[in-house]
Amino acid sequence: MPDVTRRMYTPEEMGAPVVVSESGDVVIDAEATDVTPAEWTTKQDWGKFWAYWKGDKGLTEDDIHKAAGVESMKLYTGTKQELQAAVEVYIEAQIKADELVDIVEELDKSAVVKDILDTFGDG
Question: Is 106 exposed, middle or buried (0-12, 13-18, 19+ CB in 10 A)?
């Protein structure tokens, strides 16, 4: 297992065969794998599962699939604890991405940036 803490490895870094979905996401190629889904996924009450993530956590199915690196949770091979950790990393990354967008938007509005662009052009 990785010796670096708080680092989420992508499926391709872990050696899983991946494909790019129609939406542009990199996901594990379920057809190319001989992976047995985690036992808990075969016994899961999916209504309760999605109610927890959607209602209690405010996430979408797409968010969970991206965090888990699968197109369907029925293909997930990790434990529930690993999924929880992956979702926490995913949420943290989304928050940081949103913060960066806010910073860029503020910079774009900045008089200094406008002065620089007026002086030197934007290309």
Answer: exposed
| Residues contacting residue 77 through CB under 8 Å, at least 6 positions apart | 35, 36, 37, 38
Query: How buried is residue 85: exposed, middle or buried, by Cβ count under 10 Å (0-12/13-18/19+)?
Result: middle
- State residue 116's pLDDT score: 75
Domain positions in the chain: 18-120
For residues 26 and 20, give the distance between their C-alpha atoms in angstroms, rounded to a whole number.
5
Task: Give this prediction's pTM.
Answer: 0.56
Tell me, what amino acid is at 41?
A: T
Identify residue 70 by its one-letter amino acid code: V
63 closest CA partner among 83, 84, 90, 37: 90
